[in-house]
Amino acid sequence: KSMIKLLFVCLGNICRSPTAEGVMQHLLDQAGLAQQVLVDSAGTSGHHVGEAADERMRSHALERGLELTSRSRKLVAKDFQEFDYILVMDQSNFDDAAALVAEGPLRSKIHLFTDYCLSSRVSSVPDPYYGGEAGFERVLDIVEDAAKGLLAHLKTKM
What we know:
- Strands 2-1-3-4 form a 4-stranded parallel β-sheet, sandwiched between helices.
- The chain contains 5 helices and 4 strands, in the order βαβααβαβα.
- Strand 1 (4-10), helix 1 and strand 2 (37-43) form a beta-alpha-beta unit.
- The protein has 158 residues and is of the alpha/beta class.
């Protein structure tokens, strides 16, 4: 079977999407599925290209045993050919991602990441950038929940 490719997308690719990438990679490693699923992340804006994940986000993730090693990059139209799932963090990311491709099969690859949540009842992963410590913990809670749901979904496709 071919590899399933996941791309997590937020605005700057320094808080939410690198966290989703790191959490998902961790779950895949634990499940022994890292060879079957490729994980990456990108941002709809190019403001932070080449930067590591936000230091606050990295430190909160590390407290949960997660290392965020990605470097920010911008979402490009070619990503829609490369990846099977474009997982966005909120409606604004959804709209920005959708603007890169025409209606049809490529656009149907875009999913709200929170649609995979098992217990959180939220419509988005809130951007923690301008908030306090609690915001980063909230992102991790929601992302871990959604990643577990996404993993369960992917297992039905393997």
